[in-house]
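Pasting as-is:
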Amino acid sequence: MRPAFSVTLLLAALSSAPRMTAAAGVVGTGTPESCTEAALDEALTDGGAVTFDCGGAVTLAITRTKIIAVDTTIDGGDLTTISGGNAVRIFEVDLDASLSLDRLIIADGFSVLEPGGGIRNFGTLLINNCTLSRNTSESFGGGVDNEGTCTISDSTFSDNDGGSGGGGIANFRTLAVRRSTFFRNVSGIIHLLGRDNDPGSGGGILNLDTVIISNTTFSSNTAVSNNNPDHPVPAFGGGLYNEGSATVINCTFSRNGAPIDGYCGGIHSSGKLTVKNTVIANGIGASCCDDADGVADESTHNLVDDQYNTCGDSFVQVNRAALQLRGLADNGGPTFTAALAPGSVASGAGDPKACMDTTTTSGVDQRGHSRFGPGDSTCDIGAFEAPFSPTPAPTPPTFLSFNGEPSISFGGNLHVTLTPLDGTFSADHTFGYVQIMFLRTVPEYPTFWYLDFLAPAGAELMPSDYLDVAGFGYQGLDQPALGISDGGGCSLITGTFSVREAAYSIDGGVDRFAADFEQHCYGEKPALFGSIRLNSSVPTASPPRVRTPTPTPRRTGALPTPTPTPTATIQANQPCFGDCNRDGKVSVDELVAGVAFALGHPSSVGCDAIDSNSDGRVTVDELVLAVNVALNGCRSLPLP
């Protein structure tokens, strides 16, 4: 006899059974052409596991946002990019649904009026080993708008823009970020053609509820303020902006900024903030700010490299050179990291309890490398764990030295060597160009120095000898340039410089740099010589001089070897600078005519000899050049 049972018992049994994942499908049939939006729509219909068979790497463009209404897992196999074509958001997750993304690139999503350029989440969102790049929302959350529960692991957020806040992520509920990198994300919108910028806070992450961030690097993220001096609206937190509850453990913040009257390049918090084993460095604007009653008491073992530290006693101020934090690079692991160089004060200075926290860091760094090796009971501050060495490595030298000969217009009899004990060194790199800044931290003049090194157009600035150098901003298209300034300086120069070591990072940082230089102002024979070393053990010249080269055919790029030669001289029928009547000398009347030209007096327009670069105006530098000719003559005066 068949046993009897009720419908009620059957329904109860079914409801208590484990939830089954619906079988999904494969997008594509082995060729790139088969991986279409229609094929993706079909695979997503019933949720479940979605994979791709596209015959290799493919970018799948969509024209409609994909609404995730049932539990779905998408694995891109490290070969698939889903693009919104800068026209549509890519995914939206419903309240009762979950979306898990793995080994996938989400790019070029766009949303105008609603948050979430790449993804908007109301349910549960898991992102693992993914890249979200170039997604834009004119509202909040360029990469992700989270209004549910979101967990990010081993992923990269780069070049996303959240117009009102949260360039990488805008979080309004619960967010966890582990072993990930936020690079060059922007909050706010920069307008051209005279329009005011739309300000936005939280270039990397905007948090208005609860976020826990561990083993994560924030590099070159920006919070944009508006640019109207009459109605200024500042932005806050280039890396992280927090109005809720934020916990930050073993993270690295580097080169984040809140320019244009913004505040706090690294972290800005007006809520509860707990920070452990974290370094904040190289920021634009104060590195860390806190508007609440202070960071939580459990915050500990943190480092900051500027004098604007408002994050409390858990942060120790250190010199940038002692920190030895490198730029963003591929140091192993699924994401780029900022390494600690040998001798960093962050090495071995972390709190082991925070490094071993089982809910966040779990004893590994951002790359997944163990925090503790054989014989090593300490861990480092930041997201990167440097190799353990029982003997601390020496710190490579950093210094700026000058040796000025007498009777020169700029730097005469200047003999000084500046080190990190005297002030702070910083440097920026774009292709072909390096600017080095020194800010003195003791009250002596000068308080700062700027050095500009520029390769010829189309060439990267790399180790070599650079000849026929012009003043920075006055160079020809195929000419290298050098600039040296303490607020003054000279623009019309001749000279040379030799780059002896150069190592750059993708975030615009300069990891190592060594150069020796020689500058002649306004055609003077005496020179200002000098050397710069940033984390470089390359020895200087003895003495540090790069001699004036012989004329050689000008070419694009650096010349392979220096060749000594004489300077050029004024030829017949070539006027001296300021010699209006071409009589081979410069008189007081001609100097007065040059001043009138500089002031725009119409009667002196005919004196073009004082306009040395033929730009239709006369600068103070050109007037000084004319005075030099009046005093010294011009028969053997080197041309600038």
